[in-house]
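Hello Y.,

Per our agreement to keep a running log of every chain we model this quarter, I'm adding this entry. I've kept the format consistent with earlier entries: sequence first, then predicted structure.
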Amino acid sequence: SSVAEVGFNELLVFEGGERGIVFDLGEERIGCVLLDDCWAINAGDVVRRTRETVSVPVGEAMLGRVGDALGRPVDAGDEIDAETTLPVERPGTPIVSRQPVNTPLHTGIKAIDSMIPVGRGQRELIVGDRSIGKTAVAIDTILNQRDSGVICVYVSIGQKTSTIAGVVAALERFGAMEYTVVVVTDANDPPGLQYIAPYAGCTIGEYFMEKGRDVLLIYDDLTKHAQAYRQLSLLLRRPPGREAYPGDIFYIHSRLLERATHMIDEKGGGSLSALPIVETQAGNLSAYIATNLISITDGQIYLAPELFHRGIKPPVDIGKSVSRVGGKAQLKAMRQVAKNLRLDYTQFEELEIFSRFGAKVDVAAAKKIERGRRIREILKQPRYAPMPAEQQVLILLATARGVADRVPIERLGEFQQAIIDSVPQKVEAILKKIGGDEELSEEDINAVIKEIESAVPAELLTEEAPGEAEDDANE
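Predicted structure for the entry above:
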């Protein structure tokens, strides 16, 4: 075939079997991005058209497998016997086939589910510096989908092989691989393969969405995806713009993330939720790729380095994090108990900074500081320990109604464990109401508080909140 007949994004095959994608179309020459190593390619080699675009295998056979962006297995298993293949680049769902985000996608992380809720079909950015726990938040979210029926697709873009191995090992250890597909490109892979990886992962997820299933997609991370695309563009001599990225850098991510949606019931009612990850340098949220993604997504979870170094994990910065779907993606009971949590916490952070300079605070401010310290301690959570939404509601209810105020801060871990161990069995009917998205009556709340107070060891509870006792002493 002549150069004039080749199509944009068409798959080409070289003499040695190496594959590439048509990226630039000129009158006499074309630009091709390689998907395989280039060492065996020489000048004068014959290149053949395939009249196809790049496709990836999809189907139930993908579950539990680790493959590259072309569906080739990289685990110890056999070739993936997929039901069919679909193009990695597909148009997003039309607007008339979408419905609003209104069903929770629980992460199992108290700080997120209570104050930055994520819904099925939403795109929520996870943003923060290197080695601060961004992937940990994403993996905890996958682990929390065990009994929810949600299919998970984890896409690794340009990560270290050791990091990828750690993620897969964690998913296997906690039994999450049975409902998860892992798409892997490591730092040693060609930039072309890294570039198509998130689109391939999205196509795998869309197959399940179009069958009426709910899907969670993790892109880890889109900073490296943008860097791979920049490398390709500069090699193809496309004009560089801000930070040397090409002018269409926004489009490569917008067309990817716009494929996430919640489909209308007539189309099966499936959903595709996206948790893209982006890395910042020294917490700089105004960086080019970070601001692009913030403007595309429906909110961001910002992980702050200063919180991480103070031992607050996950280090979610409540002030800079937001969910633009909000309470519509929360259980009614969670909305009830958490409605003042964000305000109380942000007020506490301001007062805490003020009080650090030795300024004297009044009784009301002292109470807010004590309440805020307990909220912060309760929102701490170990890695790989997602908590069911019903248990979160019980603990946050104890916080909102002042029971936690009577517990010494250093013993709040015991307090939470006592609630988890004893209370759920005694209030099963109320837990069903919470899970069934019903509001709790005042009688329900009083019954839960009574059970919490009886379940918590007496030595953990003082007669009055510590903040009140300190205020009386100061006076």
